[in-house]
Amino acid sequence: MNQIFRNTALRVSCDQCPLRVLPHxxxxxxxxxxxxxxxxxxxxxxxxxxxxxxxxxxxxxxxTILSGWAFRYKTLPDGRRQVLNYMLxxxxxxxxxxxxxxxxxxxxxxxxxxxxxxxxxxLNELFxxxxxxxxxxxxxxxxxxxxxDDHLLSVGRRSALERAAYLIAFLYKRALAVGxxxxxxxxxxxxxxxxxDTLGLSxxxxxxxxxxxxxLGLIRWQGRACEVLDIEALVDVAGWEQxxxxxxxxx
Amino acid sequence: MNQIFRNTALRVSCDQCPLRVLPHxxxxxxxxxxxxxxxxxxxxxxxxxxxxxxxxxxxxxxxTILSGWAFRYKTLPDGRRQVLNYMLxxxxxxxxxxxxxxxxxxxxxxxxxxxxxxxxxxLNELFxxxxxxxxxxxxxxxxxxxxxDDHLLSVGRRSALERAAYLIAFLYKRALAVGxxxxxxxxxxxxxxxxxDTLGLSxxxxxxxxxxxxxLGLIRWQGRACEVLDIEALVDVAGWEQxxxxxxxxx
DNA sequence: CGGCGGCTTGAGAAAGATCAAACGCTGTGG
DNA sequence: CCACAGCGTTTGATCTTTCTCAAGCCGCCG
Lengths: 251, 251
Fold this sequence. Notes:
The structure is a homodimer.
Chain A: E1 4-7, H1 30-39, E2 40-46, E3 51-53, E4 62-67, E5 70-75, E6 81-87, E7 92-93, H2 95-100, E8 106-109, E9 113-118, H3 123-129, H4 131-157, H5 160-177, E10 187-188, H6 192-199, H7 203-215, E11 219-221, E12 226-228, H8 231-238
Antiparallel strand pairs in A: 1-2, 2-9, 3-8, 4-7, 4-9, 5-6, 5-8, 10-12, 11-12
Helix pairs in contact in A: 3-4, 5-7, 5-8, 6-7
The first copy, chain A, binds a DNA duplex through helix 7.
Organism (chains A, B): Devosia geojensis
GO molecular function (chains A, B): DNA binding
Pfam families (chains A, B): cNMP_binding (PF00027), HTH_Crp_2 (PF13545)
């Protein structure tokens, strides 16, 4: 359990990266692809529950998720936990630690995970020689900031029901973008405990709130996962005005 | 009221930027300085209450605060408002809009403001020719992300009293870093309405909570401002474990 | 002088937390 | 194969925090 398996050999070449063909991601030039291929040193497989990065680490790695779900969180000294965001395929993990020297949040695998490991100390080279990729890194940081803005608005100003609807709609949209939704049905691999720590609510109240969404026919809950039944209605309950997502970069 | 005055001429040359001498900011090389000087097109003066950037804008400007305070916020369709963060001298405004094409939050002046205006469309040039500055931009985005992480933890998991203490301690530390604290006393230019919208509380409850901090002798409230009396105690009440701030960049 | 924005206070209502207990599934060990 | 432990989910009862409503105060500015 909670083990990390490291592969020195590249299993998936960046040229044939399965993410690259998704319409959600921008296209790369060959020189960019070549650099990213050399930037990637290995792949890593992690089990659910593995803590990939821990608060306070100084030499955190830099990863991109190739497949699976993870989440980012912080805790107070007495153990209260706040989930900050979820990471899906194409998301960069550990940028804060790489750019600012120290990490102040933790990252845990939610499902089995495959990660691309990058050479943290060559980020400088990326900035010097591949300005377009450097811009992408900044884009990704801005994108994370935007998601946090939304979460903060949600936790600060939405009611429990609205918050729950927003979170599930948000995760659905993200899953959709990376092709994890088949025939309109997505299975979001979250527990109610995690939802509670994301929404800033207690587990009990989270359960009662989710139950209301179930009764309304918007979601279904089964086996540590949430199935979305009516995304439109969820967005509506949340009062969420989303900007349409354009093509995004990833490294 | 709420007017913007634009000066075509540079009043303060970047070489003699008053922020540059603060120990809080990293030193720049001459070529960097020269570029930033050319990147800056003008200065702008704004009155308190001026909305510098509004949600949904497509051609948002890119600014750095030279002096004064501003805040960033989002609103729900029915008007509920959440303050996301505060911006002080040295902070970049409008990066999200510049990098991602569209802005999804608003920015308002809290005090009289002096801003440096940058040529948004030359950001590309910055990335191509000044990788060290590009890295700084990414650093700033990561820094914003880190502050948001903290705010989210606060709003999601701290009690009203802890939240209030955290916010005031946070603002004090930020003011301190840019030299706005004289003999241990800082005057934070916030209203209780704004505090409420930052903490995700009602005005009434915010008032009662702040009153408790006043009674405890940690702060004083007078004339649309908060005076910090005991920063250590505030940090303690908040249960805030802060990483020591290192030197930071700015553009 | 009057209006307005910001602060303050009390009282009752509502949302959400805590406590307590139980159910069902899964994996493990006898 | 069954007993059991552990985790995730569910539900009811009660307690606490926070919200809403209502009103009054103060200082500033037109």
